[in-house]
Write a structure and sequence with these properties.
Blueprint lengths: L8 E4 L6 H8 L16 H10 L4 H4 L1 E8 L7 E9 L4 E8 L8 H16 L4 E7 L3 H9 L3 E12 L2 E11 L4
Parallel strand pairs: 4-5
Antiparallel strand pairs: 1-2, 2-3, 3-4, 5-7, 6-7
């Protein structure tokens, strides 16, 4: 079984040829509210990131995989697993699908594929995400992939017009 191949997508390591795509995504300020970015990244910094990236979740406490259409190496998104906690076997997760590829099922397939990889291969007990209550597309995506709302975090995300709440979404492995 290849844990990184879904029905529509494949997950792969970050490659040097992803530099320009990562540069575009990381510097799209309209996406910053969904993460913790507050300033643009230079190509130099991203090139260093790619060159030094180990894809070792145990060493770096994070793992980023690139989403591609099945059979095509073109990057259309990324799945980020971060805040890895080896003691409790849990990690946070985030996903980005390039806006020109949304609403085609790529996000759901990539998230489903990553969840199976994380729970079955990496043996994580759970994945979690903080999703702003107004981000209906992400909420629908995480729910469709078996995540459940476990709590409401008040004033969790700062937006241009003020603060908004976020749901704590969890996916817990069936067999602990």
């Amino acid at each position: 079984m290849n844990y990184l191949i879904g029905q529509q997508t494949e997950l792969r390591a970050v490659e040097p040829e992803d530099l320009e795509t990562l540069y575009r995504w990381e510097n799209d300020s309209s996406l910053w509210i969904y993460g913790n970015t507050v300033a643009p990244f230079s190509r130099f910094l991203l090139k260093q990131y790619i060159e030094n990236y180990t894809a070792d979740i145990a060493r770096d406490n994070q793992l980023r995989l690139i989403v591609t259409p099945k059979g095509d190496p073109k990057a259309i998104g990324a799945v980020d697993c971060f805040d890895y906690d080896p003691t409790h076997r849990k990690a946070a997760i985030g996903i980005l699908i390039d806006p020109q590829y949304t609403r085609r099922g790529f996000g759901r397939d990539a998230l489903d594929t990553f969840v199976k990889y994380a729970l079955d291969f990496l043996h994580l007990h759970q994945l979690y995400a903080h999703v702003p209550t107004g981000n209906t597309a992400s909420l629908a995506l995480f729910r469709a992939c078996g995540f459940v709302e476990s709590g409401l975090l008040r004033d969790w995300v700062r937006l241009p017009h003020g603060y908004t709440d976020a749901y704590l979404m969890q996916k817990i492995a069936a067999n602990p």
